[in-house]
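quick one before i forget lol
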Amino acid sequence: MYDRKKAVEYAHAWAHGRNPAYLSFNGIGGDCTNFVSQCLYAGGMKMNYTPTMGWYYRSGNDRTPSWTGVQYLFNFIIKNQGTGPKAVPVRLEETEPGDIIQLAFSPDFYSHTLLIVEKGAAPFPQNILIACHSSDSDYRPLTSFRYYSYRCLKIVE
C-alpha cells in the first residue's frame, strides 16, 4: 500500500540534499527521477527486481533504467502488472500529494520528474507545489517552471 504521507515526508527531508544510500546523478543526466523513485520507495512501493524492465536500485551500477530515467519510469509505472509502483495518467485536478508530474521542455520529449507535495483547493498549476532534484526544490510552484507541457501520473498501487 502506498503511503503518500511518507513519500512526501521523504521528499521534504531530501529535497535540498542527497541521501548517501543513493548515487547522485547530477552531472550525469540529472537526479530528478532517481529522487522521485526514492520518494516512491519511502512511501512503501516495493522494488521490482526484473532485470532491465523492472524498477529497482541496489547501487549506481546495479539499477534499472526506470529508477533514474524519465521516460523509462513513465513506461514502467503505466504498464506495470507486477511488483512495484503502478500509475495511471490523469488530469491535474485528479492528482494529490505523492503523485508525479513529468515536464516536457520541448514538444513530445519529457525530461523532468517532480513529486507533488501540496495541492491547493483550486486545481490549477499555480496551486500545485512540488519537490524535485536536479534543480533542487521543495514547495516550489509548478508554474515557476518554463515547460512546454506536463503529464500527471496518479499512483494507484
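fyi The two ends are 6 Å apart (CA to CA).
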